[in-house]
Design a protein that fits this description.
alpha+beta; two-stranded antiparallel ribbon; repeat; about 425 residues; EGF; rod-shaped; transmembrane helix
Length: about 425
Protein backbone atom coordinates (compact mmCIF):
# COMPACT_ATOMS: atom_id res chain seq x y z
CA UNK A 1 0.00 0.00 0.00
CA UNK A 2 1.17 3.53 -0.57
CA UNK A 3 0.23 7.17 -0.04
CA UNK A 4 1.64 9.73 -2.45
CA UNK A 5 1.28 13.42 -3.16
CA UNK A 6 -0.05 14.28 -6.60
CA UNK A 7 1.40 16.30 -8.30
CA UNK A 8 4.81 16.06 -6.68
CA UNK A 9 6.05 19.65 -7.36
CA UNK A 10 4.99 23.34 -7.31
CA UNK A 11 1.29 22.73 -7.74
CA UNK A 12 -1.53 22.17 -5.34
CA UNK A 13 -0.96 18.68 -4.11
CA UNK A 14 -3.44 16.04 -3.05
CA UNK A 15 -2.99 12.72 -1.35
CA UNK A 16 -3.35 9.56 -3.42
CA UNK A 17 -3.79 6.20 -1.72
CA UNK A 18 -3.18 2.97 -3.59
CA UNK A 19 -1.87 -0.60 -3.73
CA UNK A 20 0.94 -2.19 -5.65
CA UNK A 21 0.45 -5.81 -6.77
CA UNK A 22 3.44 -7.65 -8.22
CA UNK A 23 2.67 -10.57 -10.51
CA UNK A 24 5.53 -12.89 -11.35
CA UNK A 25 3.72 -15.06 -13.87
CA UNK A 26 1.13 -12.86 -15.58
CA UNK A 27 0.62 -15.26 -18.47
CA UNK A 28 -1.01 -17.77 -16.17
CA UNK A 29 -2.27 -15.55 -13.38
CA UNK A 30 -3.70 -12.48 -15.13
CA UNK A 31 -7.13 -12.39 -16.81
CA UNK A 32 -9.66 -9.86 -18.09
CA UNK A 33 -13.12 -10.91 -16.95
CA UNK A 34 -16.51 -9.91 -18.28
CA UNK A 35 -18.94 -8.49 -15.72
CA UNK A 36 -20.60 -11.24 -13.73
CA UNK A 37 -18.82 -13.94 -15.72
CA UNK A 38 -18.68 -15.16 -19.31
CA UNK A 39 -21.24 -13.42 -21.56
CA UNK A 40 -21.62 -10.33 -19.40
CA UNK A 41 -20.62 -7.89 -22.13
CA UNK A 42 -23.00 -9.34 -24.70
CA UNK A 43 -25.91 -8.96 -22.27
CA UNK A 44 -24.70 -5.49 -21.13
CA UNK A 45 -24.61 -6.73 -17.59
CA UNK A 46 -23.03 -4.73 -14.78
CA UNK A 47 -21.82 -6.15 -11.49
CA UNK A 48 -19.60 -5.16 -8.61
CA UNK A 49 -15.94 -6.09 -8.71
CA UNK A 50 -16.52 -8.36 -5.72
CA UNK A 51 -19.19 -10.36 -7.59
CA UNK A 52 -17.08 -10.79 -10.70
CA UNK A 53 -14.01 -11.61 -8.57
CA UNK A 54 -15.91 -14.52 -7.01
CA UNK A 55 -16.58 -15.96 -10.48
CA UNK A 56 -12.89 -15.73 -11.38
CA UNK A 57 -11.56 -16.77 -7.95
CA UNK A 58 -9.46 -13.61 -8.00
CA UNK A 59 -6.87 -12.90 -5.35
CA UNK A 60 -6.66 -9.28 -6.54
CA UNK A 61 -9.37 -7.64 -8.64
CA UNK A 62 -9.56 -4.13 -10.09
CA UNK A 63 -12.23 -2.51 -12.23
CA UNK A 64 -11.15 -2.53 -15.84
CA UNK A 65 -12.28 -0.82 -19.05
CA UNK A 66 -14.81 1.91 -19.73
CA UNK A 67 -18.50 1.25 -20.20
CA UNK A 68 -21.69 3.11 -21.00
CA UNK A 69 -23.24 4.28 -17.75
CA UNK A 70 -26.76 4.25 -19.21
CA UNK A 71 -26.80 0.96 -21.19
CA UNK A 72 -24.02 -0.99 -19.45
CA UNK A 73 -22.34 -1.65 -22.81
CA UNK A 74 -18.66 -2.57 -22.64
CA UNK A 75 -16.50 0.02 -24.42
CA UNK A 76 -13.20 -0.42 -26.16
CA UNK A 77 -11.45 -3.54 -27.32
CA UNK A 78 -12.06 -6.40 -24.92
CA UNK A 79 -10.39 -9.80 -25.18
CA UNK A 80 -11.01 -12.31 -22.37
CA UNK A 81 -8.92 -15.47 -22.14
CA UNK A 82 -8.35 -15.54 -25.88
CA UNK A 83 -11.96 -14.69 -26.83
CA UNK A 84 -12.81 -11.46 -28.67
CA UNK A 85 -15.60 -10.07 -26.53
CA UNK A 86 -15.84 -6.49 -27.85
CA UNK A 87 -14.41 -4.73 -30.90
CA UNK A 88 -14.04 -0.95 -30.50
CA UNK A 89 -14.42 -0.41 -34.21
CA UNK A 90 -11.40 1.91 -34.37
CA UNK A 91 -12.23 4.01 -31.31
CA UNK A 92 -8.99 4.89 -29.51
CA UNK A 93 -8.87 4.83 -25.76
CA UNK A 94 -6.57 3.76 -23.00
CA UNK A 95 -5.61 0.13 -23.65
CA UNK A 96 -3.83 -2.60 -21.85
CA UNK A 97 -3.11 -6.14 -22.92
CA UNK A 98 -0.99 -9.23 -22.37
CA UNK A 99 0.46 -11.36 -25.10
CA UNK A 100 0.50 -15.15 -25.17
CA UNK A 101 4.17 -15.12 -24.21
CA UNK A 102 3.33 -13.10 -21.07
CA UNK A 103 4.63 -9.67 -22.17
CA UNK A 104 2.45 -6.65 -21.37
CA UNK A 105 1.17 -4.14 -23.94
CA UNK A 106 -0.11 -0.66 -22.97
CA UNK A 107 -1.92 1.97 -24.98
CA UNK A 108 -2.69 5.60 -24.27
CA UNK A 109 -2.28 6.89 -20.72
CA UNK A 110 -2.81 10.14 -18.83
CA UNK A 111 0.23 12.31 -18.33
CA UNK A 112 -0.35 12.81 -14.67
CA UNK A 113 -0.77 9.11 -14.03
CA UNK A 114 2.26 8.52 -16.16
CA UNK A 115 4.40 10.85 -14.11
CA UNK A 116 3.24 9.17 -10.90
CA UNK A 117 3.91 5.69 -12.16
CA UNK A 118 7.31 6.71 -13.44
CA UNK A 119 8.20 7.77 -9.93
CA UNK A 120 7.29 4.27 -8.78
CA UNK A 121 9.62 2.75 -11.35
CA UNK A 122 6.83 1.72 -13.71
CA UNK A 123 7.95 1.57 -17.33
CA UNK A 124 4.56 0.56 -18.84
CA UNK A 125 1.22 1.79 -17.56
CA UNK A 126 -2.38 2.35 -18.59
CA UNK A 127 -5.29 4.33 -17.19
CA UNK A 128 -8.25 2.19 -16.31
CA UNK A 129 -11.79 3.27 -15.61
CA UNK A 130 -11.56 5.54 -12.60
CA UNK A 131 -13.62 7.97 -10.62
CA UNK A 132 -16.53 6.48 -8.79
CA UNK A 133 -15.93 3.19 -10.58
CA UNK A 134 -12.51 2.68 -9.07
CA UNK A 135 -12.69 -0.47 -6.93
CA UNK A 136 -10.07 -2.76 -5.49
CA UNK A 137 -10.84 -6.20 -4.05
CA UNK A 138 -8.21 -8.24 -2.20
CA UNK A 139 -8.94 -11.91 -1.46
CA UNK A 140 -12.66 -11.29 -1.87
CA UNK A 141 -12.76 -8.25 0.42
CA UNK A 142 -13.30 -4.63 -0.64
CA UNK A 143 -10.00 -2.78 -0.07
CA UNK A 144 -10.75 0.64 -1.58
CA UNK A 145 -12.99 3.50 -0.47
CA UNK A 146 -15.89 3.81 -2.93
CA UNK A 147 -17.23 7.28 -3.66
CA UNK A 148 -20.88 6.31 -4.13
CA UNK A 149 -23.30 6.29 -1.21
CA UNK A 150 -25.18 3.06 -0.61
CA UNK A 151 -28.77 3.05 -1.82
CA UNK A 152 -30.08 1.33 1.30
CA UNK A 153 -28.30 3.72 3.71
CA UNK A 154 -26.76 6.99 2.63
CA UNK A 155 -24.30 7.09 5.48
CA UNK A 156 -22.34 4.19 3.99
CA UNK A 157 -20.29 3.95 0.83
CA UNK A 158 -20.86 1.10 -1.65
CA UNK A 159 -18.93 0.04 -4.78
CA UNK A 160 -20.40 0.86 -8.12
CA UNK A 161 -21.62 -1.77 -10.59
CA UNK A 162 -19.01 -1.78 -13.32
CA UNK A 163 -18.14 -3.67 -16.46
CA UNK A 164 -14.91 -5.56 -17.11
CA UNK A 165 -12.49 -6.50 -14.33
CA UNK A 166 -8.76 -7.19 -14.25
CA UNK A 167 -8.22 -10.32 -12.17
CA UNK A 168 -5.07 -11.70 -10.59
CA UNK A 169 -5.64 -15.32 -9.66
CA UNK A 170 -3.82 -18.50 -8.91
CA UNK A 171 -1.99 -19.97 -11.90
CA UNK A 172 -4.50 -21.68 -14.12
CA UNK A 173 -4.32 -25.13 -15.64
CA UNK A 174 -5.03 -26.01 -19.22
CA UNK A 175 -7.80 -26.91 -19.27
CA UNK A 176 -8.85 -25.30 -15.97
CA UNK A 177 -10.78 -28.41 -14.86
CA UNK A 178 -7.92 -30.80 -15.73
CA UNK A 179 -10.31 -32.64 -18.08
CA UNK A 180 -12.48 -33.56 -15.14
CA UNK A 181 -9.84 -35.99 -13.87
CA UNK A 182 -7.95 -33.80 -11.42
CA UNK A 183 -7.75 -30.57 -9.42
CA UNK A 184 -5.82 -27.48 -10.45
CA UNK A 185 -3.46 -26.48 -7.62
CA UNK A 186 -1.18 -23.49 -8.24
CA UNK A 187 -1.34 -24.06 -11.95
CA UNK A 188 -0.66 -27.77 -11.90
CA UNK A 189 -3.18 -30.57 -12.36
CA UNK A 190 -3.21 -33.05 -9.53
CA UNK A 191 -4.85 -36.10 -11.07
CA UNK A 192 -7.35 -38.12 -9.11
CA UNK A 193 -7.44 -41.89 -9.11
CA UNK A 194 -4.56 -44.25 -9.68
CA UNK A 195 -4.45 -44.35 -13.45
CA UNK A 196 -4.91 -40.79 -14.83
CA UNK A 197 -1.62 -39.27 -15.93
CA UNK A 198 -0.21 -36.34 -17.89
CA UNK A 199 0.07 -32.58 -17.33
CA UNK A 200 -3.68 -32.15 -17.87
CA UNK A 201 -4.81 -35.59 -16.57
CA UNK A 202 -5.90 -36.75 -20.01
CA UNK A 203 -3.94 -40.01 -20.25
CA UNK A 204 -4.95 -43.37 -18.82
CA UNK A 205 -1.88 -45.32 -17.77
CA UNK A 206 -2.12 -48.76 -16.21
CA UNK A 207 1.61 -49.34 -16.09
CA UNK A 208 4.41 -50.31 -18.46
CA UNK A 209 2.85 -53.65 -19.32
CA UNK A 210 -0.15 -51.87 -20.90
CA UNK A 211 -2.49 -54.58 -19.58
CA UNK A 212 -0.23 -57.17 -21.25
CA UNK A 213 -2.03 -56.48 -24.53
CA UNK A 214 -4.90 -58.61 -23.20
CA UNK A 215 -7.16 -55.78 -22.01
CA UNK A 216 -7.80 -52.06 -22.02
CA UNK A 217 -6.87 -49.47 -19.43
CA UNK A 218 -9.77 -47.73 -17.67
CA UNK A 219 -9.93 -45.25 -14.81
CA UNK A 220 -10.54 -48.25 -12.56
CA UNK A 221 -7.57 -50.21 -13.89
CA UNK A 222 -7.16 -52.93 -16.51
CA UNK A 223 -10.35 -54.33 -17.97
CA UNK A 224 -9.18 -57.76 -19.14
CA UNK A 225 -10.32 -59.50 -22.29
CA UNK A 226 -12.25 -62.75 -21.96
CA UNK A 227 -9.91 -65.54 -20.94
CA UNK A 228 -7.51 -63.36 -18.94
CA UNK A 229 -7.37 -62.11 -15.35
CA UNK A 230 -4.98 -60.29 -13.03
CA UNK A 231 -4.19 -56.67 -12.27
CA UNK A 232 -2.36 -56.36 -15.59
CA UNK A 233 -4.27 -59.13 -17.47
CA UNK A 234 -1.20 -61.37 -17.59
CA UNK A 235 -2.80 -64.54 -16.21
CA UNK A 236 -4.76 -66.92 -18.43
CA UNK A 237 -7.84 -68.65 -17.10
CA UNK A 238 -7.17 -71.70 -14.98
CA UNK A 239 -7.93 -75.12 -16.41
CA UNK A 240 -11.64 -75.78 -17.00
CA UNK A 241 -12.63 -72.10 -16.72
CA UNK A 242 -13.25 -69.51 -19.42
CA UNK A 243 -14.95 -66.20 -20.33
CA UNK A 244 -14.98 -62.74 -18.75
CA UNK A 245 -13.18 -62.88 -15.45
CA UNK A 246 -12.77 -66.66 -15.96
CA UNK A 247 -16.11 -67.01 -14.18
CA UNK A 248 -17.63 -69.74 -16.38
CA UNK A 249 -16.86 -73.44 -16.00
CA UNK A 250 -15.92 -75.58 -18.99
CA UNK A 251 -18.12 -78.59 -19.84
CA UNK A 252 -15.71 -80.59 -22.03
CA UNK A 253 -15.56 -84.37 -21.40
CA UNK A 254 -12.90 -87.03 -21.96
CA UNK A 255 -9.98 -84.65 -21.66
CA UNK A 256 -11.22 -82.12 -24.24
CA UNK A 257 -9.40 -78.79 -24.22
CA UNK A 258 -11.57 -75.75 -23.39
CA UNK A 259 -11.09 -72.48 -25.27
CA UNK A 260 -10.42 -69.85 -22.56
CA UNK A 261 -12.37 -67.19 -24.46
CA UNK A 262 -15.47 -68.92 -25.81
CA UNK A 263 -15.47 -72.23 -23.92
CA UNK A 264 -15.64 -74.35 -27.10
CA UNK A 265 -14.14 -77.84 -26.83
CA UNK A 266 -11.26 -79.26 -28.86
CA UNK A 267 -11.65 -83.04 -28.68
CA UNK A 268 -8.73 -85.42 -28.23
CA UNK A 269 -8.15 -88.36 -30.54
CA UNK A 270 -10.96 -90.89 -30.33
CA UNK A 271 -13.80 -88.51 -29.40
CA UNK A 272 -16.13 -86.03 -31.06
CA UNK A 273 -19.21 -83.94 -30.32
CA UNK A 274 -19.77 -80.41 -29.01
CA UNK A 275 -18.58 -81.49 -25.57
CA UNK A 276 -16.35 -84.41 -26.70
CA UNK A 277 -18.87 -86.73 -25.10
CA UNK A 278 -19.09 -89.27 -27.98
CA UNK A 279 -16.56 -91.93 -28.97
CA UNK A 280 -15.58 -92.25 -32.60
CA UNK A 281 -17.88 -94.51 -34.64
CA UNK A 282 -16.37 -97.78 -35.84
CA UNK A 283 -14.28 -97.11 -38.93
CA UNK A 284 -13.14 -93.61 -37.87
CA UNK A 285 -10.36 -92.36 -35.60
CA UNK A 286 -8.21 -89.38 -34.65
CA UNK A 287 -9.03 -85.88 -33.29
CA UNK A 288 -12.73 -85.21 -33.74
CA UNK A 289 -12.92 -88.57 -35.58
CA UNK A 290 -12.00 -86.92 -38.86
CA UNK A 291 -9.86 -89.80 -40.23
CA UNK A 292 -11.03 -93.04 -41.85
CA UNK A 293 -9.61 -96.44 -40.90
CA UNK A 294 -7.52 -98.11 -43.64
CA UNK A 295 -7.58 -101.70 -42.40
CA UNK A 296 -8.11 -104.70 -44.72
CA UNK A 297 -11.64 -105.95 -45.23
CA UNK A 298 -12.86 -102.67 -43.76
CA UNK A 299 -12.09 -103.88 -40.28
CA UNK A 300 -12.24 -101.34 -37.44
CA UNK A 301 -9.11 -99.65 -36.17
CA UNK A 302 -7.94 -98.10 -32.92
CA UNK A 303 -10.08 -94.98 -32.36
CA UNK A 304 -7.13 -92.93 -31.18
CA UNK A 305 -4.17 -94.04 -33.32
CA UNK A 306 -5.81 -95.75 -36.31
CA UNK A 307 -3.80 -98.92 -35.72
CA UNK A 308 -5.33 -102.06 -37.22
CA UNK A 309 -3.70 -104.33 -34.65
CA UNK A 310 -6.01 -103.80 -31.75
CA UNK A 311 -7.60 -105.83 -28.98
CA UNK A 312 -10.84 -104.51 -27.64
CA UNK A 313 -11.88 -104.85 -24.00
CA UNK A 314 -13.79 -108.03 -23.21
CA UNK A 315 -17.13 -106.26 -22.98
CA UNK A 316 -16.74 -104.60 -26.36
CA UNK A 317 -15.32 -107.82 -27.82
CA UNK A 318 -18.46 -109.70 -26.75
CA UNK A 319 -20.62 -107.01 -28.32
CA UNK A 320 -18.71 -107.22 -31.58
CA UNK A 321 -18.97 -111.02 -31.51
CA UNK A 322 -22.72 -110.89 -31.02
CA UNK A 323 -22.97 -108.26 -33.72
CA UNK A 324 -21.01 -110.52 -36.11
CA UNK A 325 -23.23 -113.52 -35.37
CA UNK A 326 -26.32 -111.42 -35.85
CA UNK A 327 -24.99 -110.10 -39.13
CA UNK A 328 -24.15 -113.59 -40.35
CA UNK A 329 -27.62 -114.77 -39.37
CA UNK A 330 -29.19 -111.89 -41.22
CA UNK A 331 -27.11 -112.63 -44.30
CA UNK A 332 -28.15 -116.34 -44.14
CA UNK A 333 -31.79 -115.37 -43.87
CA UNK A 334 -31.32 -113.00 -46.75
CA UNK A 335 -29.81 -115.77 -48.91
CA UNK A 336 -32.68 -118.09 -48.04
CA UNK A 337 -35.19 -115.45 -48.71
CA UNK A 338 -33.90 -115.26 -52.27
CA UNK A 339 -35.10 -118.95 -52.97
CA UNK A 340 -38.78 -118.51 -52.29
CA UNK A 341 -41.54 -120.85 -53.59
CA UNK A 342 -42.19 -118.63 -56.54
CA UNK A 343 -38.51 -118.75 -57.40
CA UNK A 344 -38.50 -122.54 -57.26
CA UNK A 345 -41.59 -122.72 -59.49
CA UNK A 346 -40.00 -120.37 -61.97
CA UNK A 347 -36.75 -122.38 -62.07
CA UNK A 348 -38.67 -125.69 -62.40
CA UNK A 349 -40.75 -124.31 -65.25
CA UNK A 350 -37.63 -123.20 -67.09
CA UNK A 351 -36.02 -126.59 -66.65
CA UNK A 352 -39.19 -128.39 -67.83
CA UNK A 353 -39.39 -126.16 -70.90
CA UNK A 354 -35.77 -126.87 -71.73
CA UNK A 355 -36.39 -130.58 -71.25
CA UNK A 356 -39.41 -130.49 -73.56
CA UNK A 357 -37.49 -128.63 -76.24
CA UNK A 358 -34.69 -131.16 -75.93
CA UNK A 359 -37.14 -134.12 -76.28
CA UNK A 360 -38.82 -132.63 -79.35
CA UNK A 361 -35.46 -132.08 -80.97
CA UNK A 362 -34.46 -135.62 -80.24
CA UNK A 363 -37.66 -137.10 -81.72
CA UNK A 364 -37.29 -135.00 -84.84
CA UNK A 365 -33.76 -136.33 -85.25
CA UNK A 366 -34.91 -139.93 -84.82
CA UNK A 367 -37.73 -139.53 -87.38
CA UNK A 368 -35.41 -137.92 -89.82
CA UNK A 369 -32.89 -140.78 -89.69
CA UNK A 370 -35.63 -143.35 -89.89
CA UNK A 371 -36.94 -141.67 -93.04
CA UNK A 372 -33.49 -141.59 -94.56
CA UNK A 373 -33.04 -145.33 -93.85
CA UNK A 374 -36.39 -146.17 -95.38
CA UNK A 375 -35.37 -144.44 -98.59
CA UNK A 376 -32.11 -146.34 -98.65
CA UNK A 377 -33.86 -149.69 -98.15
CA UNK A 378 -36.27 -148.87 -101.03
CA UNK A 379 -33.44 -148.63 -103.49
CA UNK A 380 -31.81 -151.90 -102.48
CA UNK A 381 -34.08 -154.88 -101.81
CA UNK A 382 -32.90 -158.36 -101.05
CA UNK A 383 -34.70 -161.35 -102.45
CA UNK A 384 -33.89 -165.07 -102.35
CA UNK A 385 -32.30 -166.34 -105.49
CA UNK A 386 -35.15 -168.72 -106.10
CA UNK A 387 -37.47 -165.76 -106.26
CA UNK A 388 -35.14 -163.96 -108.61
CA UNK A 389 -34.44 -166.82 -110.78
CA UNK A 390 -37.77 -168.48 -110.54
CA UNK A 391 -38.43 -172.02 -109.43
CA UNK A 392 -35.40 -174.21 -110.00
CA UNK A 393 -36.04 -177.20 -112.29
CA UNK A 394 -33.30 -179.09 -110.65
CA UNK A 395 -34.01 -181.63 -108.00
CA UNK A 396 -31.81 -181.34 -104.88
CA UNK A 397 -31.07 -183.95 -102.45
CA UNK A 398 -32.19 -183.36 -98.86
CA UNK A 399 -28.65 -182.91 -97.87
CA UNK A 400 -28.17 -180.35 -100.52
CA UNK A 401 -31.43 -178.69 -99.50
CA UNK A 402 -30.47 -178.31 -95.89
CA UNK A 403 -27.17 -176.87 -96.89
CA UNK A 404 -28.91 -174.34 -98.97
CA UNK A 405 -31.36 -173.42 -96.25
CA UNK A 406 -28.66 -172.94 -93.73
CA UNK A 407 -26.64 -170.83 -96.06
CA UNK A 408 -29.69 -168.86 -97.00
CA UNK A 409 -30.57 -168.31 -93.41
CA UNK A 410 -27.10 -167.09 -92.71
CA UNK A 411 -27.29 -164.76 -95.64
CA UNK A 412 -30.53 -163.28 -94.40
CA UNK A 413 -29.28 -162.82 -90.80
CA UNK A 414 -26.31 -160.79 -91.89
CA UNK A 415 -26.91 -157.68 -93.87
CA UNK A 416 -25.06 -157.53 -97.03
CA UNK A 417 -22.76 -154.73 -97.82
CA UNK A 418 -24.43 -152.05 -99.87
CA UNK A 419 -22.43 -151.15 -102.81
CA UNK A 420 -22.17 -147.41 -103.36
CA UNK A 421 -23.10 -146.39 -106.88
Amino acid sequence: MFVSDIPPKDRKQRKVYGHFTFVRNPLRTFSVLEPGGVGGCSTRWRATVEETARHGQCLVAQNGGYFNMDTGECLGNVVSDGRLVKNAGGLQNAQFGIRKDGTLVFGLSLWEMADFLKQQGIINAVNLDGGGSATLVLNGTLASYPSDHCSFNGMWRCPRDVSTVMCIHEPTCEPPDCNGHGHCVLGECQCIGNFWRGPNCSLLDCGPSNCSLHGICTESGCLCDAGWIGSNCSEACASRFYGDGCAQRCLCHNGGECDPVHGSCTCPAGYHGALCEQECPIGQYGPNCQKICECEHKCPCDQETGSCNITYPSTLQNQLSRAGQCLASQMSVAEKSLLTDRTWIFITSILALLLGISAVGYLRLVFKRSSEKTQESGDYMYYPLKEMNGESSHTYTPASCETYREEDAQDQSQPEAIPLL
